[in-house]
Design goal:
Structural class: mainly beta
Helix content: 10-25%
Shape: elongated
């Protein structure tokens, strides 16, 4: 409305009514509602206190955060902020401000300019935090608050955390109290009035006093004057954010849009994207009926709690306030929290974070009711966009930086320390990397062993022998106790799952080529080695690379020099897929050489090998932060078999592996690992029966790990990173042991075989339950 402040000079100046939420009119702090304002006044729509009864404890529902939950550096103080005062402070709790507090942010080092009816400090709620630059304008001689509106708004923004009353959203911020009401208007029937020229003076003073954010819990039916527009433009040009109440005429015909005073947010020349329109929601996150909605100004509109907000007036008396005036300081406090926690943020970035982290409400995306959504500091204090290791461009994931295969087992439970990461806003967070590593799903060796119904065929042509195994696709589930049939006859149906071609080159030399069987298995075949009993689960330690593979191409050749047989083998293929999102599993290649010689009843075998992995380390996959490269492993093997007579024999086999993981990411040097696998067994092989018992340990890392250069601190002033060396051991606590009994008996035209096994701490995971299984097979030859 218009008021003439210069008498006979007839100079007319635009004036605003204190909106107590941007709606204008009668902002007194009476304990009963004021009368409905006349049509010439902006409606208050419940802006006055409606009760002196303490509000119920707020029960906000914060948006779930990613696992793990990084926290800004420096480390958060060990303070329990979830106390009675925080729960009483429903403006702070509804915004999930505890996430900011736990991260060490309180608004410290920031200034919130409250342009309002002044500030009176009841009960030392702002002790030591009222800026010396606080001033009175509009003909007032003091910034003391006689109306109560300015004090209540300041309390929502930054009241102290002192165990009494309520705490402000940014309780550590400094308040720049700028009283701007026209002298003598507060306490009247019409309530406090504000001229645009006075508001312009207050805004310019806030900018000159280095305000972080300017809170305008004001509004009206007129747009800002040219004088006020110019002051607002100077503020945004200086990087100061303005938060303006949307208004309280939501029930009126034009309540679907913010009041005209707040619509300045859409004027790019003035706002520069730094003016927020504050809407209001209630305790259930429903849009407040009294609040002006976002309408066509939705891109600039953010909603915060504005209904029954717990606060106090200039006398210290508690009230429940309703109005967009009280959503406005919650958003101003949120700006202060972000700028205090992350001093690198520009005003534009801080506002972008608040908008983009808001909880979506109403229609999906930006909508005409809630605008950008509901203020959510839990999300605003989480990393946004792409994340990378501090001091580098190495990408890092918040949730998954690798999957650890069985050889490393439960080594993921061993902490490696926290690493500082930066998000796309350049904000520093600490991330416990070990918690972002997954484990390979427990393999089901029984299902893998029986594999459904198979059929095989063998064709001999002199010195050449070719065999093919086909299978029908098994069902989705495999039973704990399974039946499978193998038929060694050529069948056209099914798909080929394995094949070998064996050539007897001369009396002393044999060569083989195959797919699916590994190179070591072919080497055993051409050398005349093999298990006396058909073990399915407790595999020999020299049988493969030490992790599950999809099979590939393999070859082997053996030559006998007197009593000594020398065998060469090689294979290449892919590791088994560990996750659905892994489009192409990493490849590997393996070469081996072994020598076997009988010495009386004892047969000795020694071997060596080399394994090269691309994008995996003993089957484990690590992201860029932990290298993401491959590894080179050298192996040494030893085995002995002792003939005990009458078809019985005892045997042992052992493998020691040395792995060098390629350097990358946080690694200060190549990773060095030592691994072991072994087996002991006793078996009997006769013409009509066979029997065996084996104790085995699959490949397990027994020592070594990664030496990491971890970013542990980040300086926003110089944008420099501090590093510390950490040692991350990859030897698991768990130790898998397998005991397997194998029995077979000739039955008619085939063999009936049964296997029973027990796996302790499967996957080298100490907490994993035991795995028991049995399988019965019948193999025939037609």
């Amino acid at each position: 409305m218009r008021r003439n402040f210069h008498g006979s000079s007839a100079i007319v100046t635009l004036a605003l009514m204190l909106a107590g939420c941007g709606g204008g009119g009668g902002g007194g702090m009476q304990s009963t509602p004021t009368p409905t304002p006349s049509p010439t006044q902006a409606p208050v729509a419940g802006d006055n206190p409606v009760s002196t009864t303490p509000p119920p404890t707020a029960t906000p529902t914060p948006t779930p955060t990613p696992t793990p939950s990084p926290t800004p550096t420096p480390a958060a103080p060990t303070v329990n902020y979830d106390d009675a005062e925080y729960r009483r402070s429903n403006a702070a709790s509804a915004a999930n401000a505890i996430s900011a507090y736990n991260a060490g942010a309180t608004g410290q080092g920031t200034r919130i300019a409250i342009v309002d009816s002044g500030l009176t400090d009841p009960g030392s709620e702002f002790a030591g935090r009222i800026d010396a630059a606080s001033r009175a304008f509009g003909g007032n001689t003091s910034f003391a608050d006689s109306d109560g509106h300015g004090t209540s708004v300041a309390g929502v923004a930054a009241a102290s955390r002192n165990g009494t009353q309520t705490m402000g959203v940014a309780f550590g911020a400094t308040i720049l109290a700028l009283r701007a009401d026209t002298a003598g208007t507060c306490g009247t029937t019409d309530g406090c009035k504000y001229s645009h020229a006075t508001l312009a003076q207050a805004i310019d003073h806030a900018v000159a006093s280095n305000a972080t954010v300017i809170n305008l819990s004001l509004g009206g039916e007129s747009e800002p004057s040219q004088t006020l527009r110019a002051a607002m433009a100077r503020a945004t040009a200086a990087g100061v954010i303005l938060v303006i109440a949307a208004g309280n005429s939501g029930a009126d015909a034009d309540g679907g849009e913010p009041e005209p005073f707040a619509r300045i947010a859409a004027d790019a020349a003035v706002a520069r994207g730094l003016i927020v329109i504050a809407g209001a929601h209630d305790a259930t996150n429903a849009a407040a009926s009294f609040a002006n909605k976002a309408g066509s100004f939705a891109p600039y509109y953010l909603t915060a709690l504005g209904s029954r907000v717990r606060g106090f007036d200039e006398t210290g008396q508690s009230f429940l306030y309703s109005g967009t005036s009280y959503a406005t300081p919650a958003i101003s406090g949120a700006v202060a929290l972000l700028r205090s926690a992350f001093p690198n943020l520009s005003a534009t970035q801080a506002l972008s974070l608040l908008f983009n982290s808001a909880t979506d409400a109403g229609a999906a995306g930006t909508d005409p009711i809630y605008g950008r959504g509901i203020l959510n500091l839990a999300r605003a204090f989480q990393p946004a966009g792409s994340t990378s290791l501090a001091g580098s461009a190495v990408p890092v994931s918040l949730a998954s930086n690798g999957i650890v295969a069985a050889a490393m087992g439960d080594a993921t439970a061993r902490p490696m320390g926290e690493s500082v990461i930066l998000d796309s806003y350049g904000r520093a967070f600490t991330l416990p990397l070990a918690r972002t590593l997954g484990r390979v799903a427990q393999r089901r060796p029984l299902a893998m062993a029986i594999g459904g119904f198979t059929a095989g065929g063998v064709a001999d042509a002199g010195a050449l022998s070719v065999s093919v195994t086909t299978a029908r696709d098994p069902g989705a589930d495999q039973p704990w106790l399974g039946l499978a049939q193998r038929q060694t006859a050529l069948r056209p149906a099914g798909r080929a799952i394995a094949g070998t071609m064996l050539a007897r080159i001369d009396a002393r030399t044999t060569a083989a080529l195959g797919f699916a069987p590994g190179g070591a298995a072919l080497a055993d075949r051409v050398s005349g080695r093999g298990d006396a009993a058909a073990f399915l689960i407790a595999r020999a330690p020299t049988a493969g690379p030490g992790f599950d593979t999809n099979g590939g191409v393999s070859l082997a050749a053996a030559h006998r020099f007197g009593q000594t047989t020398l065998a060469l083998s090689g294979e290449q293929g892919q590791a088994q897929r560990l996750a659905r999102q892994e489009a192409v599993p990493p490849a590997y290649a393996m070469l081996g050489v072994s020598g076997m010689r009988p010495i009386g009843a004892l047969t000795l075998s020694l071997g060596a090998g080399m394994l090269r992995e691309a994008r995996s380390v003993l089957g484990s996959r690590f992201g860029a932060a932990l290298g993401s490269g491959g590894a080179l492993t050298t192996t040494g093997d030893a085995a002995a078999t002792l003939a005990l007579g009458d078809g019985w024999q005892a045997g042992t086999a052992w493998r020691r592996a040395w792995t060098r993981a390629d350097r990358g990411g946080l690694m200060a040097a190549d990773g060095r690992l030592r691994s072991d696998a072994f087996a002991f067994d006793i078996a009997h092989a006769g013409r009509a029966n066979r029997l065996g018992l084996r104790l085995a340990q699959p490949l397990r890392v027994s020592g070594g790990g990664y030496r990491l250069s971890m970013p542990v601190a980040y300086d926003y002033a110089t944008l420099t990173t501090t590093y510390a060396e950490r040692r991350w051991g990859l030897a698991p606590d768990g130790r898998e042991r397998i005991v397997e009994a194998a029995w077979g008996r000739r039955l008619g035209i085939g063999w009936l075989d049964a296997n029973l096994f027990w796996r302790r701490q499967p996957g080298n995971i100490a907490a994993a339950p035991d795995d028991l299984g049995a399988v019965l097979r019948f193999a025939t030859r037609w």
